[in-house]
Known about the structure:
The chain is mostly helical. The protein has two domains: 1-29 and 144-204, Winged helix-like DNA-binding domain superfamily/Winged helix DNA-binding domain (Arc Repressor Mutant, subunit A, Orthogonal Bundle), CATH 1.10.10; 31-142, no CATH class. The protein contains ten helices and no strands. The relative contact order is 0.15.
Amino acid sequence: MGETGAATHSTTKGSPDPASLALAARGSTSMVTRGSPVGGQAPDEAVARSAAAAALGPATFGRFYEEHFTALVRLAVLLTGSPEVAADLVQDCFVRLHGHWAGVRQPLPYVRRSVVHACASHHRGAARARRQRAEPVTTTTELGADELGDALAKLPGKQRAAIVLRFYDDLSEDDIARTLRCRPATVRSLVHRGLAELRRVIEP
């Protein structure tokens, strides 16, 4: 777990407990587990992805893909609400990473940042499409009936990303700041406001 001050973990009385939040987040993406189909893929499709990754380049890239693909899809599911969209976005991010593999010194932060920004771009594109069709914003989410997961899906993009990266990915404020390209103080504010909104939605 990234090291942060005790104040980062503390929440006001009645706010969602960070440990409960992390457990609920993991539960809401339980359909994406190591060795299980990702994004609705059949097992043979998952095997095909693995074979494709191994053929892309050096063995180190193939191993990196195998070690981190599923976890990054879980992250993307929490940010998009769709296992299918999440798997596609993460796959695209790995393709881009492969193109820069030789020059990337820290591939995990690099691809994690790519995934977070790809998810944000997906939401912006979906919002534009809704405006063009004059469709109302739907509150339906594919995260499941879990109350906390549903509330998480309704947070603004950056608040949701900060909460997920802090309590699901266990990143430090500095690491989250680098991922979101903002200051650590902004991360603290995003987490604080996000937890307050979760508390408002969940508690009557």
